[in-house]
Amino acid sequence: MKPAPHWPLHPAPREGEALSSWLNxxxxxxxxxxxxxxxxxxxxxxxxxxxxxxxxxxxxMLSQRSGIExxxxxxxxxxxxxxxxxxxxxxxxxxxLETYAFQLSVLLPxxxxxxxxxxxxxxWLPSQPIHRACPLCLNDPANQAVLLAWKLPLMLxxxxxxxxxxxxxxxxxxxxxxxxxxxxxxxxxxxxxxxxRRTWQALTTGHVELPRRRIHAGLWFRLLxxxxxxxxxxxxxxxxxxxxxxxxxEGCGHPLRAGQSLWGSVAKIVKLEHAWRxxxxxxxxxxxxxxFPG
Length: 294
What we know:
The chain is mainly alpha-helical.
C-alpha cells in the first residue's frame, strides 16, 4: 500500500530541536520506534546520521510528510549550521584547526600561540555522543524536545531556565533517567547564564548583541573556540604572557589547564566555564579583558 503523502499527526519542531528528537516525537504519535518510522514509511534505515548530515532525499520525504520546508529540517542537523558554527563537516582537512581557531586572538598575541595540524578534527563536534539536557525542560511532560545544541560542548546552562545542563540516559518521551537523580536543578552563575544566552542568540538569530555592538554568529563561535585553545596553551610557550594566563586560571579558582595534562572532555567543560567568564569581560576580581589586536 502506498504511504500517505502527509502524516495526520506530527508535532511541530521546537526552536533549536534536533532532527532525531523531532522524529522521536513523531514516532511516539504512532507508537513506533524512530527506526521503524524511518524504515517502513521513509525507506531510510540509517539513523546515526540524523543530527549530523541527513541525506537530502530523506529531508525531501520528511518535508512531503510534514509540510515543513527542507531548509528548516536541514537546520535541525549540524549540516544546517555550516558555515556559521563549523567551516565544514569534513574531518580530513589538515589545517581545519588553524583556520578556525588561530585567525583571532583574545588572551594571547598570535606570536605566542603554537599552530598545529590535527587529523580527524571537526570543531565543536564531540568524538563521543554527549547526553546533557535541562532537567526543567525534560521533566515537563509537555516539552520533551532535545535541543541540537545540547549535543555539543558549547553551552553549560539552559538559556530559558538558567540552570546547569545535566547528564541523562535513555530517550526523552519514552524512558528517561538522570545520572545524578538526587540533584535538584542547579542555578548557573550570572556570567555563564549571560554567555549561554548569547550563544543561543547566535544559534537562533545568526548574530549576538554585545554591550557595544552586534557581531555575526560565525565570529562569536570562532572567538569562543579561540579562547578555549588559548586557555589550553602551556605556559612554557607564552613568554611574558605566562603570568597573565596564570592570573586568569587563579582568578577562576582552578589549577592551570583544569589540572589536565591532555585535552579531555572534563577539562574542556571547565575551560568552557572560564571562557564564558572571560568573554563576559570580568571575573571575581573585576579584571577587564581586551582582545589582542591582529
